[in-house]
Amino acid sequence: MLFNSLQFLIFLPVVVVLYYLIPDRLKNFWLLLASYYFYMCWNAKYALLILFSTVVTYASGVVMDKIRQTEMEASQRVFRKKICVAVSFVLNLSILFFFKYMNWGMENIGQLLRAIHITINVPAFDVLLPVGISFYTFQALGYTVDVYRDDIRAEKNFFRYALFVSFFPQLVAGPIERSGNLLKQLAQPKKLTFNNFREGTFLMVWGYFLKVVLADRIALFVDTAYGDIETYTGVCLIVASFLFAVQIYCDFSGYSVIAMGAARILGIELMENFNAPYLAVSVAEFWRRWHISLSGWFRDYLYIPLGGNRKGRLKKYLNILITFGASGLWHGADWTYVIWGLLNGIYQIIGDVMTPVKRKAVLVLGIKTGSISHRLLKTAVTFLLVDVTWIFFRASTVREAFRIIRGILTVHNPWVWIDGSLYTCGLDQKNFNLMLWGILILAGADLCKYKGIKLREVLAAQDDWAQSLVMILAVLGILLFGIWGVGYDASNFIYFQF
Amino acid sequence: MKRAFWIVVSILFMTAGIWKLTSLLALKNAYQKNHVFMEQAEDFDVLFLGTSHVINAVFPMELWQEYGITSYNLAGHAHPLPATYWVMINALDYASPDLVVVDCYGLEREDKTSGEFGHQSFDSIPLSGNKVRAVFDLYETTEERMEYLWNFSIYHNRWDTLGAGDFMPEDGVQKGAELRNVVEEPEITARIGEDESCTLDTTGTDYLRRLIEECQNRDISVLLTFMPFPAAGEDQLAARYVRQIAEEYGVRYINFLDMDIVDYEVDCCDAQSHLNASGARKVTEYLGKYIRETYHIADHREEEAYGRWQEDYEAWRSYKVRQTTGLESLQNYLMMLSVCDMDCYIYIEGDSGIWRSDDIYVKLLENLAGETELIKMQAAMQNGGAYLLVVKQDAVTEYAGEEAVVWKEAYMAKAEETDSVSDVEIVVMNPADGSTVDRKRFADRMLIDTQ
């Protein structure tokens, strides 16, 4: 069930209305039932995988809690808890590996053997990748580590914990919630408040704008250009690459915002997943603003346990590469994702290495680091660097990524802006212009966010009639200009595949 | 309380906005097809149902002019009988006809819908219980049903093609019919043997039976037809089977496939054998006479309450003239002259190529002359002399050779001098006041100038 489907627009109000009508003690059961139904609409059998992951991580938590209460030597206690963590990780990651990486791994082994002239028949498993498996697996594993670290007490109520793992707004594409945030909120039954309803509705409308007006419109251009890179070269590919950066942002942040909105209507506050990432002035800052829940997960559960930046510069760089390589793999079983991750890591290492040089250059050249022009330049350079990595992310193979880069660098056809041929690439001029207006609105909203201005609060401070007017115009605008309806392939949110 | 008020107000305005956008963005062909029907539904004594064969073959405004019959052509493009059935059921929510004429083309079909063509028939019908039942019966997927119950879901992306006609849509003047102003010879098929027959038990027959029963339950007469076209063998068999159903229910049936009402060489507009305006004129004329003689359908021409019908007829006549004067092909022009209710003078030079091209022009001239035999035309063709054909509403006159040249100057005011040389010159005049409506000159069968 997609957020941009008719089913969801019926499902959510039903869930919300019943949630607030039933007695408090039944509320979590109802949400759990709704969450499993939500997932089973896609594939009923794969709900068993969520259940398995839930049981394993719940049990690991309970056992660790028992160990914590048992009198024994501290080292013995830590050792036993580590076994629990290891069992939880091995079981969960085995499932993830089987469904997501097995075929890719076998294929690579086969290629490696063929390279040394050993020919064997590598089997391929006909399995469907469970939607959102990386998200709920990481969320559940995060809980295991949190209990291990004594950051939280193990959850005793199995159903509440099951709801934590499967809470439908963020089940299939995040944000990857922390147990400390979500479990605590699930412990308290919620009452309907006007503020939650209003905020949640605003968030959802904004999310739908990002998804159906912007992301899906941009996809028409990007898919056309990247689908025929022999025809669409030079400027067309540059524009497509620029637009893909916007598309994936709108697509993914759109999902996150709708998830936040739906949860907010139910009285649950999910974490922010994006914070104006393309206004970052360095790649490191970009990663503090992009997919915050995943970046935070890798920071807290991989980078820091690896030693972080505490064990020397070389080890720090190695840890960065491991973390970003793993992040790449988390996104997909393909070398394109690995290269995408590593490139982001390499940027940060180069940025770190170059810091003294940059400082020196600033001093020698008398650059005003606080000026708008300097910030704009840094923002543009950061965007450009990130955008190059998106080419690998979007391409279906590494070879295709390099062909795209070659098509960008070797073909010079600036006239496509003038002779109108740019508008044959999936979007006519009217739709292209509409898309630019949409991007302008997004840029304005992100700038406000970057400056700490909360538009939702600004709107909430207005008179009721003004709020109503904005809401009416927004909904009508989305219905009118959105890419949806019959004949529209309700394209999955890009991050569903992860 | 205050907040609840604003929530309700927001929902109301949002709903109103969506409703307005829905009507603005909808394709206007549905509006043009059915808006007049919805507005004047109580006027109609006869409803025509079926497929494009009916849309192109029956002109309700001609039935009005000739017989005072108030009718509407509700047929839909490619409609199988289930769609026809539901169009009628929905129409009967608004109209109370005395007679329903149903064309049975497609009787052998098992499908229920006509793809995207269904929108033209169903889009402008307001949401009602019967519309919901129709959509749920005809369409299987949620997407399709949504598409028909709330067409905003398919038209919302038309925002970039909106024009003045979307903001101020014009009513159709054809009362549901569609005039075709083109001549094209269809592929002619062989007639099946006299003794060949078949029995059908299809979705089409099911719905035809339901349709007849529904009408009989409501005391509405039913006339079944099979419109003329060069039918393939299976269509001819289906047409014969309709007679069994008609006899079974005691309703009348006209199988045009067995009649020579139309001449396929001049009366069709495409290879798929739809009738052009000339063919439609003949079928409409036959049907009008048949209905007048067979059913007790009132003649409303003298009734004051139907005064607007005469205005509608004038609009229809103007439409026919516009459809004629805009043409550039001689053969299409000659065909349309037979239906546009104007006097016309056709002068053909002695050495005109149309005599030598093929006999389509001869047939078109004969078609224009109606029942009058064109004796002098044959002489002109053989001797290569000039020829003048004068077709007035009450008489047809022809001149050949020298007299054609003389009478041409008498009848047809001299055309403005031009450098171009024509071999066919046609003047169209309004019989009411003798004013020139159109003057065209053709060379090698194509228009060279209009004055």
Put the structure in a nutshell:
Chain A has 498 residues and is mainly α.
Give a written overview of the molecule.
- By secondary structure, chain A is an all-alpha fold.
- Chain A has 2 domains: 6-191, no CATH class; 196-497, no CATH class.
- Chain A is 70% helix and 0% strand.
- Chain A has helices at 6-21, 24-40, 47-69, 74-115, 133-148, 158-166, 179-186, 194-227, 235-265, 283-289, 292-303, 313-331, 335-365, 372-394, 398-410, 429-450, 455-460, 464-481.
- In chain A, α3 (47-69) packs parallel to α5, α4 (74-115) runs antiparallel to α5 and α8 packs across α16 (429-450).
- With 451 residues, chain B is of the alpha/beta class.
- Chain B folds into 2 domains: 2-316, SGNH hydrolase (Rossmann fold), CATH 3.40.50.1110; 329-450, no CATH class.
- Chain B has 20 helices and 11 strands.
- Chain B has helices at 2-25, 28-40, 52-55, 60-67, 81-91, 118-122, 129-138, 142-149, 152-155, 164-167, 203-217, 233-249, 264-267, 277-294, 307-325, 330-337, 354-357, 360-369, 375-383, 402-411, and strands spanning 46-49, 71-73, 99-103, 221-226, 252-255, 343-348, 387-391, 396-400, 424-429, 436-443, 446-450.
- In chain B, strands 8-7-6-9-10-11 form a 6-stranded antiparallel β-sheet, with helices on both faces. A 5-stranded parallel β-sheet of chain B has the order 2-1-3-4-5, with helices on both faces.
- In chain B, β7 and β8 form a beta hairpin.
- In chain B, α7 (129-138) packs antiparallel against α8.
- The longest helix of chain B is centred in the first third of the chain and has 24 residues, at 2-25.
- Chain B is globular, with a radius of gyration of 25 Å.
- Chain B starts with a helix and ends with a strand.
- The model of chain B has no long low-confidence stretch (mean pLDDT 89).
- The A-B interface holds A 6, 194, 428, 430-431, 464-465, 467-468, 471-472, 475-476, 479-487 and B 2-3, 6-7, 9-10, 13-14, 17-18, 21, 25, 142-144, 146-147, 152-154, 156-157, 159-160.
